[in-house]
Structures are given as structure tokens and as C-alpha cells.
Amino acid sequence: MIIKLITILISITFANEKIDSLKGKTFAYAGPNCFGVALYAAGINPIIRAVDVSEFKAVLKHQCSKVKTPKPGDIGVYSVKDFDIIHAFYNYDEDTVLEKTGVDYIGKTPIHIRDKEHSYHTFGYSKECLRYGGKGNPQCYNPLDYYQCEDLDAVIPAQITAVEEKIDSILENLLSAKPRNLHEKKMELIRLIRFYKTMIDQHGSEFQEILEGRLESYQHQVEFLPKTKPHFIAS
What we know:
The protein has two domains: 10-149, endopeptidase fold (from Nostoc punctiforme); 153-224. Helices cover 47% and strands 13% of the residues. It is α+β, with helices and mostly antiparallel strands.
């Protein structure tokens, strides 16, 4: 019992250090967004990258359960009624969130650890609606739901996971620092993503919706990278 308790405490300490290290983090290129940060912090995705709303919604559907009482480590989700999800954050503690606001086009919007009130005042309601519809209008306020999520790597076919690991490895390096051989890296990514599409079409999974959403995210992350031309070395 004591050993189990010590193991839990150690894992919590490492998890907190991982989250704390993200504060102020920026990226070499655009793409990483609020969904990508939330899924990484919650242990769902192995790196921070662009995550399309289609992938994020599929993860919520298949890997997460809505909870009434949020705990540290859960994911908070703001949505607009009759529209779509507009923001997500990692529930750091009772009063604090870890979040990245949107996709910036120079990659320099940092990840923040800050008060939940800041997130609420940014995403919790429509200022225009309140201005013209009145503070008592319930349509002006965006619902906030919390989800507890779990990892599903063990049930994704190994062939598909192997390709994901290669793609993620390249993306993680690219988003951390601008390389000299960006064109070659982009071409390698494009080849891997095409192969990934073939793999999920052939092998599939009961979680096909997640894989197809992930494919869209990979494709859009590559689109966020700068346009490049091949480099020719003079002989």
C-alpha cells in the first residue's frame, strides 16, 4: 500500500513538472493550438501540434467522459450553442488553467498558466451579444463542459502507431527549432502522411473517426509550415 502511494505521488510530481515546463513555451512555426495543448497536457497526444476540431471532437467522443465536478488533469471545453467548439484548456487546478489562445501565424503566442477568470472573460460569453441583448440573455453565454480522458494507444493497430510515431518525431523537431533542410523534412512528412492515409484505409480501427481526424490535423499542420523550394548543391 505504501509503495503504491509513493508511486502515485512520484507520477503526480513528474506530471506537474511536465505541465509547469510548458509555461511561456512558443513554437518555431504556426499550427499548435488550444486543442493540441490540451490533448498533450492530458496525456492523449505525445506532442503539441495542430489539432483540427474534427480530431478533437472525435477524441472527446471516444476517449473522454463528461464530468460534473472537474479535477486537475481534466479538459475544459467552451462551445457556442448551435455552432461548434471554440476553445479548450487543461484544468491545472481549481482556479487555474493551462491554455494557448488560438493559432498564431508567426508561432509566437505562448502557452499560459493563468486564472480561470481570464479564460472565461475571453471565451465564456459574447461581448457583442451582451451589449445588444442584455446581461440577462442566456444566449450570450457559452457553455463550459469538462471531460476526463484516457489513452487508447493500446487498441490502435501497431502498424498505424508506428507511422504516427515517425510523423510526430519529425513534427516535434520542426516545431521546436527551424531546420536548414525544411524542404526535405516537409517532403518526408508528406510521404509519411500519404502512407498514413493508406494504412488507416487498409487496417482501420473501431476508432476510425479519431484516425481520420488525426489525418486532417497532420495535413493542416504541414500546410502551416512555410512554402519551400528544394535546395540544389552545386557540383
